[in-house]
Design a protein that fits this description.
Strand order of the largest sheet: 1-2
CATH superfamily of one domain: Fumarase/aspartase (Central domain)
Structural class: mainly alpha
Strand content: under 5%
Distance between the termini: 44 Å
CATH architecture of one domain: Up-down Bundle
Shape: elongated
Largest sheet: 2 strands, antiparallel
Number of helices: 19
């Protein structure tokens, strides 16, 4: 009976879950054993016939998970259980299985194969999310909305600017992921304590052949295990991605608040239930789920960092932690990416509400624009700032439109005409380089996507 929500099927995509299924992990370990036998036969360390038999039988079709578990229950060693199960089905050729290597040659290399497959999925998701945001940035590049700082109305922006900022954040994650592959996708065939003493005079060549066959990089130098700074970097990267998704989801939740109501995550009106007791509710539950899972992913960083220190050439303190944190981080981040792709692909944007919300502060949000206009007409910047601060407070207290307050002030009228005040208070006149920045970000992103071999 499943206990954790990943096992119960609540979280995770079928594609990523398959990467970390127990049978797939055992198959990956068998792949390492098969590659080793092949490499050893290539350099003449074992008979080619034995290698061919090992390669043929190194499959969960023959090495049953149930048999591996049965042996492990008896001998209390998971890798040796795999070795014995593979040896059994290989007959006399089984004598050459696992020759000259240690458990973590198999475990670390098999884990690298899993990580490679998982990173491929994450990169595809990031590419898809980047494209969704690119299209949103382009579509809404001129859609004016209120920019907010400290939760308060600040200055006008466009919704496309917000999407372009998110798009480039995702682009940087893709760059980080692609850069860290060469440090993370590393396997090893170095034997006990890393000396390769059990592998003979062709040890270095055997390692290169194995890694070439598996599509991994060999380490420059290692102990009995791959050093865990590599895995820590991986988990930190996944946590950073999760935190960006948390940021996006939090902003959508904020903009979906009843008092703002500018942006909404999709809602299946025909059947979706918002609350068990309040029929009117339309909760941003998908975005809230993303925010909640981000907390879990960030919590995995601490054990990843604590896995870096180990006693001497190896110990097992990192092993149990990794069985949780690596699959969990990938499964949850992939799931969160899938959720955000769906939310943003079906996002509901209320442009009319954005326009109405611009008027909530009755023109006061354009005080900087008026200040700049005054300075251009010759007024001291500090004097203009203080005057407009006082007039903005007066407008708020008296609940009168800022324009009215401005036009009733002698100092303002001395410098600005009514037409100039109106121009300064028009949000579309105070967007600066917003659209130019969006278009430039889109251009850069499209070029990067072309370099990655992608098309819009």
């Amino acid at each position: 009976m499943p206990i954790l929500p990943i096992d119960a099927g609540r979280y995770g995509t079928p594609e990523m879950l398959k990467v970390f299924e127990e049978e797939n992990y055992i198959q990956r370990m068998l792949d390492v054993e098969a590659a080793l036998a092949w490499a050893q036969s290539e350099v003449g360390e074992i008979p080619k016939e034995a290698a061919e038999k090992i390669m043929e039988m190194a499959s969960t079709k023959y090495v049953k998970v149930s048999r591996v578990k049965e042996i492990e229950k008896e001998i209390k060693h998971d890798v040796m259980a795999l070795v014995r199960a593979l040896s059994e089905v290989c007959g006399p050729s089984g004598a050459y299985v696992h020759l000259g290597i240690t458990s973590y040659d198999v475990v670390d290399t098999a884990r690298a194969l899993q990580i490679r497959d998982a990173l491929d999925i994450i990169e595809r998701r990031l590419n898809e999310l980047e494209l969704v945001l690119l299209n949103l940035a382009d579509k809404y590049k001129s859609t004016i909305m209120m920019g907010r700082t400290h939760g308060q109305h600040a200055l006008p922006i466009t919704f496309g600017l917000k999407m372009a900022v998110w798009m480039r954040e995702v682009s940087r994650h893709i760059q980080r992921l692609r850069d860290c592959r060469r440090r993370i996708l590393v396997g090893k065939i170095t034997g006990a304590v890393g000396t390769q003493a059990g592998l003979g005079q062709n040890a270095q060549k055997i390692q290169r052949l194995v890694m070439d066959r598996l599509g991994l990089q060999p380490p420059e130098v290692t102990t009995q295990i791959i050093q865990r700074d590599r895995h820590a970097e991986l988990i930190c990267l996944l946590a950073i991605i999760a935190s960006s998704l948390d940021k996006f989801a939090t902003e959508i939740r904020e903009l979906q608040r009843t008092e703002i109501a500018e942006v909404f995550e999709p809602f299946e009106r025909q059947k979706q239930v918002g609350s068990s007791t309040m029929p009117h509710k339309r909760n941003p539950e998908i975005c809230e789920r993303v925010c909640g899972l981000a907390k879990v992913v960030r919590s995995l960083v601490i054990p990843a960092l604590e896995n870096i220190p180990t006693w001497n050439e190896r110990d097992l303190t990192q092993s149990s932690a990794e069985r949780f944190i690596i699959p969990e981080a990938f499964i949850l981040v992939d799931y969160m990416l899938s959720l955000m792709i769906w939310v943003l692909s079906n996002l509901e944007v209320d442009e009319e509400r954005m326009r109405k919300n611009m008027e909530l502060t009755e023109g006061r949000a354009l005080s900087e624009a008026v200040m700049i206009a005054l300075v251009r007409k010759g007024m001291n910047r500090q004097d203009a700032h203080e005057l407009l601060r006082q007039l903005a407070i007066k407008s708020a207290i008296e609940k009168r439109h800022f324009k009215e307050i401005l036009l009733n002030n002698e100092t303002i009228r001395k410098f600005l005409s009514e037409e100039e005040v109106s121009e300064a208070l028009d949000p579309k006149n105070y967007l600066g380089t917003t659209i130019e920045q969006i278009e430039n970000a889109i251009k850069i992103t499209r070029l990067e996507r072309l370099e990655r071999g992608l098309k819009d």
